[in-house]
Each structure stands twice: as structure tokens, then as C-alpha cells.
Amino acid sequence: MMTSSSKLLASMRKLHVPNRAAVGAVIGLRFLDEMGDRVKEIKRGMRVRGLRPSPLRPVRAFELYFVPLVYKCLHVSETLVSSVISKGIEADCEKTSYRSLSFGLLDGAALGAGVVLCGGRGMGVIDVDIRSFSYKGEDLAALKNVRFSVERGELVVLTGNSGCGKTTLMRAMNGLIPDQYEGELDGRIELLGKSLGEFSSGELARAIGNVFQNPTDQFFTRKAADEVALVGENLGMPREELIERVESAFESMKIAHLAGKDLIGLSGGEKQRVAIASTLVYDTQVIFFDEPSASLDHEGIEDFRRILADLKALGKTVVIAEHRLYFLADLYDRLYVMAGGQIIDSFAAGRLRAEDCARYGLRALDLHGLNPENHRQLGAETASMKGVSVSAGGNEP
After folding, report:
1. Which long-range contacts (CB under 8 A, 24 or more apart) does 295-303 make?
2. CA distance 397 to 391
3. Please, which residues have CB within 8 angstroms of residue 255's CB and are 6 or more apart in sequence?
């Protein structure tokens, strides 16, 4: 981006730009950045596949460029809008800046472009009582008769097969439903003894943090330190305190060496640590994770398991929607199994067994007990190829 999100927001505040326009400008500029990256990826992919769209075939060019671009941008937009809440971008308060702030012609140009584009245990932290929830335009209820509580310091897992309702339940618990995802909600969800609907704009960012399946899609800045500082800037944390909190968050995640790095060059696990660090700038009570292991390899998952253990040691309340269970076996305090938008079973710490996983069609609880379906002996021929040639970019092999 031409200017950091926080710097742009602070500059707009100085010019008394309405909050809705400011938020729209930031998301709009983030999209310009995203579209540029996606176009580069599409071009690289086409070169590898030897594809060269011709102006004489506009429909084909449209298919190769525009369709994947729109698909990716729609996915990113959903995550960005959700991230607006956890970053406190909508907070109607005086903004601060992690870096020294000056307003020049570059910021004015960015501002103009953006505006044009946008037009301790024992205490209940979360109490859920949902009689039903249906997405707008849908007759079938996505959630039905969901009632449970999460106590302070607990690590709670929501699991079940795809489409069971766990992601929808997460959206309801972290305030995205019904504001960001419209629908009819019959019920009440309380956070720290207060209904989610009673929190003012941006206030939720002080209490909860969100780490989405692909952390890259929730980032608003280029530099790791700027991303971690963003929530503090948006909520008006004094600059000296913010600098100390950002440093402490990086140290807590054991990534102090990444503070000055570009996010685009980090590994999936490093990006995840940066996303978690951003939730630690404020003394966030609850951290939500949506399918956190989806893009991690085995080593990355083991590293994430250690992060969860550290968060528990810090007294954080953690809620995870997850398919994979083996790395959570010795960490969860309560595990809820969902199907058809309902909680169909629950397990206290250590009570889930392999037979329970088999009965509900869940992932394995212990990888060591898995039996491979491929019984071919080591060294046996499984495939052969002859006369194969490969070319790239239209060049002969």
C-alpha cells in the first residue's frame, strides 16, 4: 500500500472525514494492493502453464484473468470485513500512530483514491443461548438450540464434519452475526456479562481477537510491526505504551526478529504468530481460531500446539473451530461435537475416545493408531512413465 492503514486513518481523522468513509477507504486501498498481487500470481501461473491470452479471444482472456481475480477478492473481502471488528478500525475514538505521523501529498492522493473507491476459572466469559439462526434468504436454520458457557481460561473446541455449523457458531460468538452476516437470530450471546449487541463500535476489539484460516487475508499492512500495532492505534492507545505493548507481543510469540519484516515474505506459521501477536497488544480476554491448522504442515501444527499451550499459561480463553483433533488432545478443557447446526455431544478434558471419533465421523485423536490403506510393500513399482516431455512458457523441452 502507498501508505499504512493506520497512518491513513489518523490523517483522515485530522481532516474530520466520517468514520464510515475512513473504513471504506482503508478497505478500498487494501483491495488495490490485493488485486495487484493477484494479477502477478495469475501471470506467473499462466507462464508456467504456457498460456498466452490473445486480444483476439477476449472471452478466453476474461476467463483466465478476471474470474480467478474476482473469486480471490470476494474471499478476501469477507475476511477483511470480519477483521475490521477485531482490529478496532470502526472504533469512534481518537486514533494514535505507532510510527511518527506526518501528512503530505502522498497521503492526500491515497485519501482521494480511497474515498472514491469506498463511497481465572470459574467465571463465565461467554454465555451462548441460541434458539435459532437462519442466514438471510435461507429457510433452513443454520443453528438450532445451542446452549453452553465458556469459562475464563478454558480452551474450547468446536468440531464436526463440514457444514455442521461450527463456523456459523464462531461468527455468532465473535460478533460477526448478524451485523456482518445478515440473518434472523433468535437468542442471546453474552461476553463478559454483556450482550454482544450492547458493545459499541470498536469496543469488541478490546475484549476479543480473531485469527482466521488464512492470516494473510486479514492483514491490512505490509510490515509485521505495523500490523500488530494496528488495533492499538485504532483504539487510541498512547504511543509510548503502544510501542512497549507491540514489543512485548512479539516477544511473547518468540518472533521479535520478525518485527521489521514484510508480511508477504513470511511463512504460514510466522504469519499466524503475527496474527496472534496482534491480539496481545490489548489484554484480550478471548481469542477465536477458525480452522487454524488448515494451511500448516505437521511441523507447523506442532509449533501451533506449543503456542496454544503458551496462551493457556497466560490465562487466555481460547475457542477453536477445527477438524484435526490429535494436536488438541491434551489441551482442550471442553470439546463440543456439532451436526446439523446443533451440539450433539460434549466431552470434558481427556474424555474423548477413539470410538467416539469413529461414531461421529471425526478425525483421528491419535495419529499413531492410524492404519494405512495402501498395503503395497516398500520398493514395489506403483507407476511408470515413458516418453514424457515438459515445456514451460511456450519453449520447447
Report:
1. 295/213, 295/214, 295/268, 296/268, 296/269, 296/272, 300/267, 300/268, 300/269, 300/272, 301/327, 302/327, 303/269
2. 5
3. 224, 270, 273, 274, 277
- Looking up cell 510466522 gives 270
Q: How far apart are CA 168 and CA 177, in angstroms?
A: 8
> Which among 82, 92, 110 has a CA at the least distance from the CA of 7?
110
List the beta strands (DSSP E) in 96-154.
124-135, 143-151
Q: What are the mean pLDDT values of the chain's consecutive 10-residue runs (397 residues total)?
A: 51 58 61 63 59 63 62 60 60 61 43 39 81 93 96 96 94 87 93 89 83 84 89 86 94 94 90 92 89 88 94 94 95 97 96 94 82 60 74 58
pLDDT in tens, 178-207: 878 889 999 999 999 999 988 876 788 888
Residue among 321, 33, 396 at smallest CA distance from 167 = 321
Lookup result for grid cell 515474505 = 265
Helix, strand or coil for residue 338? strand
Q: Rounded to whole angstroms, what are the CA distances from 247 to 6, 235, 318, 368?
A: 18, 18, 22, 39
- Give yes or no for a contact between 213 and 290, defined as CB atoms under 8 angstroms apart: yes
183 forms beta bridges with 135
Which helix (DSSP H) or strand (DSSP E) does residue 281 occupy?
A: none
The set of cell numbers assigned to 33 is 494492493
Spatial CA neighbour of 95 closest among 221, 10, 21, 205:
10
Q: How far apart (Å, rounded) are the C-alpha atoms in residues 371 and 193?
A: 47
